[in-house]
Specification:
The complex is a heterodimer of chains A (189) and B (383). With 189 residues, chain A is an alpha/beta fold. In chain A, 38% of the residues lie in helices and 21% in strands. Chain A has helices at residues 17-30, 77-83, 115-123, 129-141, 146-154, 162-174, 178-184; strands at residues 4-12, 34-41, 49-57, 71-74, 92-96, 110-113. In chain A, strands 2-3-1-4-5-6 form a six-stranded mixed β-sheet, with helices on both faces. In chain A, a hairpin with a 7-residue loop joins strand 2 (34-41) and strand 3 (49-57). Chain B has two domains: 5-187, Rossmann fold (3-Layer(aba) Sandwich); 269-382, Rossmann fold (3-Layer(aba) Sandwich), CATH 3.40.50.920. Chain B is of the alpha/beta class and 383 residues long. Chain B is 39% helix and 20% strand. In chain B, helix 1 runs parallel beside helix 2. Chain A binds chain B through residues 22, 25-26, 28-43, 61-65, 67, 148, 151, 155, and chain B through 1-2, 4-6, 31, 115-117, 172, 175-179, 284, 287-288, 290-291, 294, 363, 365-366.
Chain lengths: 189, 383
């Protein structure tokens, strides 16, 4: 297990990548780990590039920004293109399966997952894409226990949406095959 | 499960202010301070307090001063453009001796600049933004937990010295989330303004006993009527053109901060005991500095961090005390060189002061600080 794990989440404003980043930071806190979460976005409420970062560590975290993440979630082609090159050499990238990985990106470090389609069609609400992603990320990386992750989600969703978010989380988890999870496992919590 | 909670700097400012007794907030939301207004709108009604969104920042600071004069602990929060608009009434608060806290979550300027990007370029504005000589206390936190504890101190100082206190945050800390375990409310020290309920000629509203600097506050709006003005005034609160009275008043306003710098000034020093190089920084900028200092120390280099927590008045005594042991100083800040001027003033010709700044809305990284340190050490070896 590594002492420090850095995750970056990128997409279009409104896709909820900041909330995904916050929920995983919350799961880290609940698991008794140190975490710093930050984000960068433009002045638009919708559209524009949105980027968020979560650092998880057993040590105290000082500098709050991520330079070369261990993991990247990218939900738009623009964010794949912008941030795929910044990954660590052995960094893992999860992209929506409607998107193209940069040419030559190693398959063994790539997770192509139907995040957006699952949210829109299986869960039935496009806005749950970030929770689907959170479920898929934790299933793949195994960072946190399931109870801790569910509690983290509950702390950050509006009352009355528990059921649909639970379904989104489960649907995200189901997108990752057991053998994939074995390959990407980065348990911290 | 851990007792810590995930909290944003701006949320910590709200919770800390409420713990300090803040029960009135007036403001006009602006990025990157908006979560403070949102948090106050949600939390103050739960605590029996009042939140009001005003039509602009001029009205916001005016409402805050009025609420405080009437007895409430009051606060507003803004960013650069709004901070500019508040300046006139910050001076009014200093002159009329009305305690309050003004949070400025700095963003990249000038003008509306880069609304979502970090900066520390309101440092000099916090000191000199309002016209005329006036006392200023400004504090700057560098973590979410410190935001909570330090804003309590901001209220305590405002109450003790009856003056507006600037809480100088930046986008780095304001928008950052960390896991924090908040202190037990019973362990907090909360100060309240000294009140005077006595009527009569010797107990005028600005009556200051000999040897003291701060008048006790009379309740405004009940009991005896009295006058509050931004004009030079006598102890009854009414305007005067007497140079003798005005001079005495203005001197006392300056004295109440200057004669109490030892109480007001706080710094954090890390690895300074045997340091030959001091990296001076404040607020969110300290996080990259801390990482750089740890790295330099791991390489066996004698580098330490000197971080003013009280940024105004500048803690010059503490820095002066370190000068004899230092070979060089590096000032790191997200502006074009503002606290640098204070550091240079204190260092004089004694020690070389170098500068690493940033004005493009991005953050200075630990690598850049380490490179700068290596460059400085090289230069000074070469001499």
């Amino acid at each position: 297990m590594s002492e420090r794990y850095e995750l970056r989440f990128a997409g279009s404003g409104g896709q909820g990548v900041i909330l995904a980043s916050v929920i995983l930071a919350e799961a880290a806190v609940i698991s008794g780990l140190n975490t710093v979460q930050s984000q960068a976005y433009g002045p638009e409420a919708r559209g524009g590039v949105s980027k968020a970062e979560t650092i998880v560590s057993r040590e105290t975290i000082w500098f709050s920004k991520v330079k070369n993440p261990d993991f990247l979630l990218a939900l738009t082609q623009a964010s794949v293109n912008a941030y795929a090159p910044s990954l660590k050499e052995d960094g893992v990238m999860m992209i929506d399966d409607s998107l193209q990985a940069p040419e030559g990106f190693p398959e063994e470090r790539l997770l192509r997952v139907p995040v957006l389609a699952t949210a829109a069609e299986k869960v039935g609400k496009a806005f749950t894409a970030n929770i689907v992603a959170v479920g898929a990320i934790n299933a793949a990386l195994g960072l946190f226990g399931e109870a801790e992750l569910l509690e983290a989600v509950r702390r950050h969703i509006p009352r009355g949406t528990e059921e649909i978010n639970q379904r989104a989380l489960d649907a995200g988890k189901a997108l990752i095959q057991a053998d994939q999870a074995e390959a990407f496992r980065r348990r911290l919590g | 499960m851990s007792k810590a909670v995930l909290m944003q700097g701006n949320e910590a400012a709200v919770e800390g202010a409420i713990a300090a007794g803040m029960r009135f907030f007036a403001g006009y939301p602006i990025t990157p301070s908006t979560e403070i207004a949102e948090g106050c709108a949600r939390r103050l009604p739960q605590e029996g307090g009042k939140f009001i969104q005003m039509e602009d920042e001029l009205a916001s600071i005016a409402a805050v001063l009025g609420a405080s004069a009437a007895g409430m602990k009051a606060m507003t929060a803004t960013s650069g453009p709004g901070f500019s608009l508040m300046q006139e009434n910050i001076g009014y608060g200093a002159m009329a001796e009305i305690p309050c806290v003004i949070v400025d979550v700095q963003r990249a300027g000038p003008s509306t600049g880069l609304p979502t990007s970090p900066s520390q370029a309101d440092y000099m504005q916090a000191r000199w933004g309002t016209h005329g000589d006036h006392p200023v206390i400004a504090l700057s936190p560098s973590s979410v937990r410190e935001t909570y504890t330090l804003i309590i101190r901001a209220f305590n100082l405002a109450e003790k010295y009856r003056t507006p206190v600037i809480f100088l945050m930046d986008e780095i800390v304001g928008h950052m989330r960390e896991g924090v375990e908040l202190p037990n409310p019973n362990e907090l020290i909360i100060n309240h303004r000294k009140m005077s309920f006595h009527d009569g000629a010797n107990k005028q509203c600005y009556f200051v006993p000999e040897g003291e600097y701060v008048p006790a506050m009379k309740p405004f709006g009940h009991g005896e009527r009295y006058n509050i003005t931004g004009l030079a005034h006598d102890q009854s609160g009414f305007p005067t053109n007497s140079s003798q009275i005005a001079g005495k008043l203005c001197q006392r306003l300056m004295d109440k901060v200057e004669k109490n710098v030892d109480h007001i000034c706080r710094v954090e020093e890390y690895a300074m005991d045997d340091a030959e190089t001091a990296v001076v920084c404040f607020g969110g900028g300290a996080r990259a500095v801390m990482e750089a200092v740890l790295q330099a120390r791991a390489e066996g280099r004698k580098v330490g961090m000197f971080r003013p927590i009280t940024v105004w008045p500048f803690p010059e005594k503490a820095l002066k005390a370190r000068l004899p042991q230092l070979k060089r100083i590096l000032m790191v800040e997200h502006n074009h060189g503002q606290m640098l001027l204070e550091v240079q003033r204190v260092a004089g010709n004694e020690k070389p002061v170098d500068f690493l700044g940033r004005i493009d809305g991005t953050v200075i990284t630990p690598e850049e600080i380490l490179n700068k340190l290596a460059e400085m050490e090289g230069e000074h070896h070469a001499q």
